Every structure is written in C-alpha cells, then in structure tokens.
Amino acid sequence: MYSIKEIYYTLQGEGYHTGRPAVFCRFSGCNLWSGIEKDRTTAVCRFCDTDFWGTDGQHGGKYSAQALVQKCLSLWPDEAVLPFIVCTGGEPLLQLDDRLVRAFHEAHCYIAIETNGTIQVPEGIDWVCMSPKIGSEVVVRIGHELKIVYPQADLDLGAYESMDFEYFFLQPLDDERQKIHIDSCIQICKANPKWRLSLQTHKLLDIP
C-alpha cells in the first residue's frame, strides 16, 4: 500500500513543464524533514513549503498500485491526451517502486517525479526533476531537469554543472527576502546561460 497525502489536477507551476496540465500525486513522508513544524529547525531541508505529512489531503489515503493509478486517471479530463502524472512529496522515491511504475505505464501514463536526489530512481520514469538540498548526499546524477532552490548555505553551483541533466534551473527561495533572491537568480542566469530561471507561477497566479 502507498501512503498518499493528496491527489489533484492542476497546472505544473515551475520548472521545464510550467503551464502543462498535470495530475499531482503527492506521496506522504520525506527523509530530509519529518514534516512536523517543531522539527523544522533540525531538518536537513528547513525551507520546505509543502504539507506532505499524513494522508488527510484531497483524495489522500492508502492505495494499492492499481487503485492509485485509477484514482489519478479519474482526474484526467481527456482520454485523447496522454495523462501527465507528477509524483512528488515529500520524497516520492521512499515509496515509488517498479510495481507502481509498471502500473502507470500499463495505463499509458507519462510519469514525472520531483525528487531530492538522495534515493536512486527506478527504471522507466519518463521525466526526472532533481532538486538537491545542501546537507544531503545526492546519488541521482543523471536526469532531465536539475532545479536548485536559491540561496542555500554553502551552495556551489559549479559542483552541479557536470551532472548529466538536460536543463538547469534556479528557483528563488520563497521567504521574506524573495525579491532579493529573484534579482540574484536573474543575475546568475544572465552571467551563466547554462542556468534558467524558474518561478513558482502557481503561487503568483494562486493556482492550487
């Protein structure tokens, strides 16, 4: 059984697929923070802005592989268009396994993941977005999209540029200094065109 925080249909708000309709399947749990606010100060990732703890969100609960696939498909509006399923968290690779990947593919879904890069990716994932967090050990060094939240203490962007990703994104940290972070990301991207700017458009446009 898979523990799912929430499942919902929306538009991807950030990174390469910004604006693309997607079913988000948010897995419960993470290995870099418990998700409980009292533990934030001792977490590896202290700036997480997502509620991934528990199974009490929209369509949340415990699912078998087939039941989870069917629930995701039930939210997709057009059978003529390949369903785009974004597996996120928390850290989805704590639960996402070969069995579930096969079940999604047997239902003709395109599977994307958003991972912190600390767990190896199962074969068959169609789109891998890796967002590393300083203080964790990254083992995912190949994928489609590398997206770094900026700034992070002791961040060395050059250490990531040799990784085998197709696209490199900087995403300004959403805190009280966000405007400064946006300006910094713009300047970095202009000075080093390997990097692109990613904005959280779902927040700007108030899209769930």
What is the strand content? 25-35%
Write down the secondary-structure element order. EEEHEHEEEEHEH
How far apart lie the N and C ends? 26 Å
Give the class from helix and strand content and strand pairing. Answer: alpha/beta
Q: What is the count of helical runs?
A: 4
Q: How many beta strands in the DSSP annotation?
A: 9
Give the rounded overall mean pLDDT: 97
CATH topology heading: TIM Barrel
Give the C-alpha Rg.
17 Å
Shape: globular
Give the low-confidence spans: none
How do the strands line up in the largest sheet? 3-1-2-4-5-6-7-8-9
CATH class: Alpha Beta
Word description of this protein:
The chain is an alpha/beta fold. The chain has a single domain, classed as TIM Barrel (Alpha-Beta Barrel). 18% of the residues lie in helices and 27% in strands. The chain contains four helices and nine strands; from the N terminus they run βββαβαββββαβα. It has a nine-stranded mixed β-sheet with strand order 3-1-2-4-5-6-7-8-9. β4, α2 and β5 form a beta-alpha-beta unit. The chain starts with a strand and ends with a helix.
Keywords:
9-stranded mixed β-sheet; TIM Barrel; 18% helix; 208 residues; 27% strand; alpha/beta; single chain
Short description, anyone?
This protein has helices spanning 65-74, 98-106, 178-191, 201-204; strands at 2-11, 21-27, 61-63, 84-88, 110-115, 127-130, 142-150, 164-172, 195-197. It has 208 residues and is of the alpha/beta class.
